[in-house]
């Protein structure tokens, strides 16, 4: 049964309905929610945005912290509205692709019924689904209904997507495989980035992804990844020459949101420009206490100011109201670094922290959301990837864009990173000549991203292009 919020108007035969189908993981949910706001803001086009969320994540419409800045976004609140639909999903879903596949029959039926219902009253129904949700979209149903079409939404970088798709190509003479420049990049093998059961799923996933849907959207910016976006769009072997739109960075819509009540931002207000290192490894990374101890000692020994978001990774349900785990720090650490550093145990306003003038570096796991936020704010990255797309995002950051440096080599990923290594990396990023050059490049690239979301910018043009395409006669 659909649950509805903020209905602007009922769909009519002249309207275009866009149905967002996100992957139920925190870093994925927010991107399509932001895109829903973008699409709904084009109200002159008689276009209506619908957002499909699981019952497990229904609390996203509350003021839960990861979505606070989205749902309270003043740029859109007065001009947009979104209709929410809740679908049932097993409570033990861990948000891994194989688990989602196991649950897909019920989800497919729900999405199919929704598509058929909406298509009976709208001029066109446009499905925008996270590519990891492709298995719940019935292609036969989409093809059989004349006014329905689907598009994949990619939450990873165009560079990472291109490398994965190139490897799955049957053409061993493909440009990517033979290009000397790309061969010099230290791109980690896919089977090193994912567990075996996920790799088995990905073999079929990348093949089906090439032929699925009418086009693809990426949460990235042409100012950052134009080369790889063009390759994805123009390469017949990889993408069947489908249309590609770069609609990011979607988080930039939050740039005017201020959270001055948060202690992090109040503390940053008292620091000098570019003097604080922000340390965060996202919502899905857990570290051994021994590694946490080495990070703590390395930060302390570096003498650099820092904000460290330290919490247990979310386990499956990103809205679990249970007690957040408290990883163990060395005895007396927080007392010793008082005034020099701050440890945050709960959610922190990452975009606002990265955008603060006092923030001069970001030690990150290189999830694409974090990379994009850091790049757009002109903040260089100390790259410490863990798994999935993160290792290849790190290559983009450190070797292609050259706006960061690596914390440790990927081949040493199973080794403990010592406090001495962490201390040296922090010093290189924050106060060496090398760090100054990296920061300069990051700031220049961030400036280009700022221009892209301004009126007449390249990202605004991508939004206009996609809206024009889906509302065409």
Automatic annotation (TrEMBL):
InterPro entries: Glyco_transf_N, UDP_glucos_trans, UDP_glycos_trans_CS. It comes from the Eukaryota. Residues 15-251 form the Glycosyltransferase N-terminal domain. The keyword Glycosyltransferase applies. One of its GO terms (molecular function) is UDP-glycosyltransferase activity. CDD domains: GT1_Gtf-like. The keyword Transferase applies. Gene3D superfamilies: Glycogen Phosphorylase B. It is an enzyme of class 2 (transferase). It holds the Pfam family Glyco_transf_N. Its EC number is 2.4.1.-. Keywords: Glycosyltransferase, Transferase. One of its GO terms (biological process) is carbohydrate derivative biosynthetic process. Belongs to the UDP-glycosyltransferase family. PANTHER family: GLYCOSYLTRANSFERASE (PTHR48044). This is Glycosyltransferase. It comes from Trema orientale. The lineage of its organism: Eukaryota, Viridiplantae, Streptophyta, Embryophyta, Tracheophyta.
